[in-house]
Amino acid sequence: MGQQLYGHARLVASVAATLISLACGTNYVYSAWAPQFAERLDLSSTQSNLIGLSGNLGVYSLGVPVGVLIDRRGPRPFVLFGAALLAIGYFSLHQAYDSASGSVATLCFFSYLSGLGSCMAFAAAVKTSALNWPHHRGTATAFPVAAFGLSAFFFSSLGSIFFPGNPSAFLKLLSWGTFGLTLFGFFFLRVSSHRVHEASSRPGSPDPTFRRTLSAEAEAFYPRSATAPQCSPEPGPTATSVPGDAREPQANIDETSSLMPPPLATPENVVASSVDIDRSRRIDFRGLRLLRTHSFWHLFSIMAILAGTGLMTINNIGNNANALWKHFDDSVSKSFLVHRQQMLVSALSVCSFVGRLLSGVGSDFLVRSLHASRLWCLFVACLVFLVAQVFALSVQNPHLLGFVSAFSGLGHGVLFGVFPSLVTEAFGIRGLSQNWGFMMLAPVASSNVFNLLYGLDCYRTAYWITFGACCGGLVITLQAIRHERLERAKDNDGED
């Protein structure tokens, strides 16, 4: 019975995390309503881009402090904060559209609030999923991450069905829809400590702290052996060992204690933890210590290149459509262009959803069945982005723009589908939210640079630059895979 309740609670929390994430990716739908919004308020294309970029900054720029607070206080309060900010941001933009007034700075501020709300709620959802499924983390985080990518398609579809050609009603839908989904998910989003379950499911057995077993993910990192390596996986400071305190009653473990490191281990626990091969629970890299690891710079660089490339297309796919269609047939109507923009946004969103889901589940398959590195998913993401850049450089018929949108969404999805698991494995589960926040700083600079390059000249120049950047990302990914193999070899030599 206890096992059934435990499994049911985790499943309910996973569904709640997925619903919350479905409300958090609405910044990707900006291209669907931005042209009409800019026309109504008489904004230039540069001003319109600033509003869209402010939403992206809200998602990425405060990821570190938000992550620190989530790691310390638990995820649930930040779902509420996120819901409130989403409602305030989108409803204020709705009012600005209705009144046809508002300074660019004010509009950017409200767009930023909507992005920050997405950041808070999404980080809380991913953290909860990672904690609830420690041995299936890639699959568990894939569903909320995939829902984040599907958000644009979900809301744009609702808007086209119920409010066709009505940006005001669509912005109101974004306000109440994101608030309602996030608030509903809040009541069911809870961390179910697997340690409590293990203790209750084996009455009379020794403390679970002394009954650690090899996980499949750990076996991919370290071969099965008598003891686990105790050295840090990176040069520099030794990773923090954080085994549970054997004298601490397991029944007292709650949501907060599963997020924070327990008290200092006794010597007996250090010995017991030598067979705890689940690396993400043994190590704890966070804060400035990240900057002294090779893995951080590998992952940060790859995220900057690929996410920046993806965001450039996401923010400007509508401009691509307008430019090509007007060149191809200057008699097309505004409503036709709006419809085409919505189609491209939907294609991008659906492919992002598919990429996120396949990447998360596929990375678990790589680790558990093939005993390979999750980093190969980043290699695939680089290849997909390269294909997208080739299409962007070669497409002259606007009917084929869907390939640019589809491959950009797919690459973006593969990238973000596997990244939470990579960050967790490299730096530990306890600092996941703040470490994820550090990674989210990467696209802030790169996306702004790529967007500025897009606006300076013909967009073909920008796509040539992103093509070269993706080639560089491919090289960095191979370096990261090689570095990981060398670290494994050192660990194996240490065991021998």
TrEMBL record:
- A cellular component term, taken from the record's GO annotations: fungal-type vacuole membrane
The record's subcellular locations are: Membrane
State which residue ranges cross the membrane: 12-30, 50-70, 77-97, 103-126, 138-163, 169-189, 296-314, 375-394, 400-424, 436-456, 462-481
Q: Name one GO molecular function term.
A: transmembrane transporter activity
**Which key words are in the record?**
Membrane, Transmembrane, Transmembrane helix
- What domain of life? Eukaryota
Which interval of the chain is the signal sequence? none
Q: Which InterPro entries match?
A: MFS, MFS_trans_sf
The record's region (Disordered) falls at 225-249
* Name of the protein this chain belongs to: Major facilitator superfamily domain-containing protein
